[in-house]
Fold:
Amino acid sequence: MIVRIATEGQYDLDDGEADRLNELDNAVVAAVEAGNEDNFHQLYGQMIELVRDRGRPVPDEELVESEVILPPPDLSFGEAGQQFSGDGILPG
Structure:
């Protein structure tokens, strides 16, 4: 799965790691819907860290469509409500 972190770049993430990313995405949605800002920041930080640590950076010169676009790492809690609702960012 190709994941873009807005303002950073793209990463190629293995399917097993994509499953974990989806779990975190669902947890972030739950935190946002519950109004739990501290939990949101912790979980969203884990999402970003997972992509950076487990994904392989896609070279800038390689043109690949992103399957998922994560908001910038400095996403505020107020902005998160617009991004993380319903099924979240990840499809499925």
Notes: Strands lie at 2-5, 9-12, 56-57, 68-70.
